[in-house]
Amino acid sequence: MADLAGSRHALPYVLNLSLVFTELPLLDRAEAARAAGFTAVEYWWPFETPVPDAAEVDAFVASVERAGVAVTGLNFFPGDMAGGDRGLVTWPGREDEFTRGVASAIELGERLGCRRFNALYGNRIDGADPAGQDKLGLSNLALAADAAARIDAEIVLEPLSGAEKYPLKTANDVLKVLDELGRDNVKLLADLYHLAVNGDDLDTVTTVHTGRIGHVQIADAPGRHQPGTGTLDIEGYLEKLQAAGYRGQVGVEYKPDGPSADSLSWLPFERRGLA
After folding, report:
1. What is the DSSP string of 198-211?
2. Are the C-beta atoms of 116 and 196 separated by less than 8 Å?
3. Looking at the annotation, which residues are catalytic?
């Protein structure tokens, strides 16, 4: 049993390898995470297309297996993230692309043992009716929920900051969608950084909405760097989450201020391998 002295909670951490260790090629990051003490990792969608070729997938799976880490989270294909896209769930005209991306992700998740998938909701599209986009979103989320249920997995939906056209800014924005959808395996992804930057009430999120949270991610604010570089009481909020009944993982999803390995000094080595 790891020594938890000095920690205010016992929640396990998983390392997000789409933001941490990005100074390394994608296929080298899982081994770097394992060398840093982590036994579980998560990724955004690790390919450029919704349906990568078999050789790409095989190489990715091999890199994970070689490292000996578990993959506990994957994003669905989000479109062109670098170009500003933030998901296809509500994007009219890209329904087939979304459907194929979901099938591809679920297949990869089944192969890796991953049972959590992040569905970025998507931006408001110029010329598209917002109500129509939201209706499409419910249809696409239902499709994704059905696909995930076939492997006993869940979908998470998150508020984002820094994306003006992305309509889900707060936990309540997501919960309204979940209420309309009515699927037990679709939950809130509570990214404490995004919620804080958007001015949400983290005390309410971490104590009232806990039962609807499927995953938690952290970065300090401002800056989205490692804990200790900003002003968020991250340990305090994680303590509140645990006290309110959250028993899931905490995704370490920040942009390292400095080399990735050095940026992890806030988290004792013995706390990294509990997942």
Report:
1. TT--HHHHHHTSGG
2. no
3. 158, 253
Return the C-alpha torsion angle 178, 183, 184, 186, nearest 10: -60
- Amino acid at residue number 122: G
Q: What would the two tokens of residue 246 be?
A: 């959250």
Choose among 179, 200, 181: nearest CA to 190: 200
Choose among 85, 96, 90: nearest CA to 44.
85
Tokens 């992700």 — which residue? 105
CA–CA separation, 205 and 169 (whole Å): 13
Per-run averaged pLDDT (10 residues), the chain, 275 residues: 62 98 98 98 98 98 98 98 97 98 98 98 98 98 98 98 97 98 98 98 96 98 98 97 97 98 96 86
Distance CA(161)–CA(169), nearest Å, equals 7
Give the per-residue pLDDT at 2. Answer: 39
**CA separation for the pair 242, 9 (Å, rounded):** 7
Tokens encoding 171: 């936990």
Q: Is the pTM of this model over 0.85?
A: yes
